[in-house]
Amino acid sequence: MQGPSRVPTSTYRLQLHAGFTFGQAAELTDYLAALGVGALYASPMLESAPGSQHGYDVVDPTQVSGERGGEQGRRALAAALRAAGLGLLVDIVPNHVGVAVPTVNPWWSDVLVHGRKSRYASYFDVDWDAGPLLLPILGAESEAEEGVELDKLELVRDEHGYPGLRYYEHLLPVAYGSADQGSPREVHDRQHYRLVAWRRGAAELNYRRFFDVSSLAAVRVEDPAVFQAAHREVLRWVIDGDVDGLRVDHPDGLTDPSGYLRWLRAAIGPDRWLLVEKILGVGESLPASWPVDGTTGYEALREIGGVFVDPSGAGLLTQFAAEHTGERLAAHTVERRARREVADSILVAEVRRIARLLPEIGADKANDAVAELLCSFPVYRSYLPEGRHSLDVALSVARTNRPDLTEPLETIYRRMLAEPDGELARRVQQTSGMVTAKGVEDTAFYRWNRMVALNEVGGDPAHFGVSVAEFHAAAAGRDAATPASMTTLSTHDTKRSEDVRARLAVLAELPGEWAAAMRGWAAAHPLPERSLELLAWQCLIGAWPIPAERMAGYLLKAAKEAKLATSHVDAVPEVDEAIAAWPAAVLADAEVVASIEEFVGRIAPAGWSNSLGQKLLQLAGPGVPDVYQGTECFEYSLVDPDNRRPVDFAARRELLARLDDHWLPPVDASGAAKLLVTVSALRLRRYRPELFSGYRALVADGPAAEHAVAFSRDPGLVAVATRLPVGLADKGGWADTVLALPHAADDWTDVITGESVGTSAPRLADLLAQYPVALLVRPA
């Protein structure tokens, strides 16, 4: 760990669940230490829903997860980390709890039994004045069909004789004395809740959720009592010295993120590392009042990955996408439509709850104005009184698009400014983030598929890549303002892994070849929706080779997120069947498979170059780099759950042992070269942390200068990466392009190859002869 604070030199993210427990994580500590990692970055460790693979559905924040190893396992993991000299960053989920299985969530279960008189009633954001708590779990398609489903209820008793209502796999507690007589249907009608058709949740739900997920109920951590109850266990780990930092999940869902973070900072102290999963828009900064060290790094992902995308490919790829889909739409148009669809459908309950706070406007006009404002924010949300500019922009955009709503929009705006802590302002700000996340990330990013390497969390597909100058400016800004912020390239939430995106970036250098190849493939194997074809073929070649089962699972999820030909809410069976069958049909076509393999063989080496380049820029650059499990080697995964598959750590241990025996591997599909780059940088960060401060852009000189991106730090460290490798090869290579090193020093060594440089201005053809990257250091 660095200095007196608890900020590590780097982190390694592990997904913990019943199949990968605290004990198994403890067994990896020697590998992580050998890799050069500074801290383990653990997914949520509190008790979650039975069988949860991610842990974000915490059911009891007062208990450590039993499935993951319980308190004994947690303590053993903490001890193993300390023994290996590693820190621990823990993911926490303050915004919501899992309520899919009420009987395992003591807070929610008590609310179902006692209603608004429950001692936990104030823990949840329930509109009790709207009547009984609505639970949208009935298989009925409409309210009219609910009676048939309610007749399927059973009255059951547990081993202690306590009664409950069972509906298929759902078991719900009942109020005391309510089950003494009557049919199950009559018992149901006596409860503080009502089971309703699953479709009614979108429009009528009377408790706040995580986005549109009815099985994740929002928690009111703005209440001091709730804050204490929700954090007591995790804070005990911090006080005991087992935890060095916390990562806060989805702070934008909180009523008062700034107030919450001040409480949390006061509770953990000034030296613990504190990060927030905040998705920043391009050019957006964290609110100044937040006492945090930074974000989880999605903005760095956009900047680092973007610098390997050739901007000259935008024109042809834009034209091809328009030709293939039959329409030419700007990204912002698609995003706006998607946001409004979300506001008018899956999040309409939230919109109506806000509109009810505006009785002076009238229900219909209030609903329309609220939805329009929510769809118009340039970023996820504002944090009044901070972030007023974002609200100003939202008002301007909404009025421009809907001048007929000018008066109600201005009423909402004035009320929010007059009462920045009022319920209207709070709910608008909470909900605008939900609309943006569901409308943009989970809808538009599956519809607008010109170049899917850019369709990533924190990204902006309308910006075709990142210039070298923009990359350097962002890195220098990070070093100056938030040097302890995390940087990342892959997470459990990324839609494609870093190596898939690195390979797909090559398409921007070969737009004509790509368009020609895809036209032929798509003609042979069409899908029910044209934009889905753009997505499908890019992801297929990006993750190639990929089994049909994995590809089918991904593609069906993608189609349902896009909500064009099918959706989660309105599934179209024949469309779903066609999509599910598509990967197997493609892989059974020998001629198409041969063509795909030829094309992937053409772009894979350039993709490997991009992978190594972006990894080095991340690991050597400002911020604290995170390595997502398995990505120290080439790892080609798609969106979750595909990116949560088991990692072959035994194979990685074997490769690391060979590297430590002075093996310099080729750049090939084994991924050993990426492991070499990763371990070289991580070990340097851990054992010579003094090198990783300051930032200065370096500029190459010569005919291929634009293909180098380089910077120095301290100034005893220099990182160099190759960009746009196809174009570089077309030029005949580096020729006599040189890179002048800081202070005219000539005592540099490349820690990746172990070779001495021997000059203050090396030729890049020599410096990058073996690998497309170099990490240079001077003697200590």
What does this protein look like?
This protein is an alpha/beta fold and 780 residues long. 42% of the residues lie in helices and 13% in strands. The chain is built from 28 helices and 25 strands. An eight-stranded parallel beta sheet has the order 16-15-14-5-2-1-18-17. A five-stranded antiparallel beta sheet has the order 19-21-22-25-24, with helices on one face. Helix 9 links the parallel strand 14 and strand 15. Helix 11 packs parallel to helix 20, helix 14 packs across helix 16 and helix 24 packs parallel to helix 26. The longest helix has 31 residues. The radius of gyration is 27 Å and the shape is globular. The mean pLDDT is 96.
Structural class: alpha/beta
**What gross morphology would you assign?**
globular
Unreliable runs: none
What is the helix fraction of residues, given as a range? 40-55%
Number of helices: 28
Largest sheet features: 8 strands, parallel
Q: Report how far the terminal alpha carbons are from each other.
A: 19 Å
Across the major sheet, the strand order is 16-15-14-5-2-1-18-17
Strand tally is 25
Mean pLDDT: 96
Strand percentage lies at 5-15%
Q: Over the alpha carbons, how many angstroms does the gyration radius reach? A: 27 Å
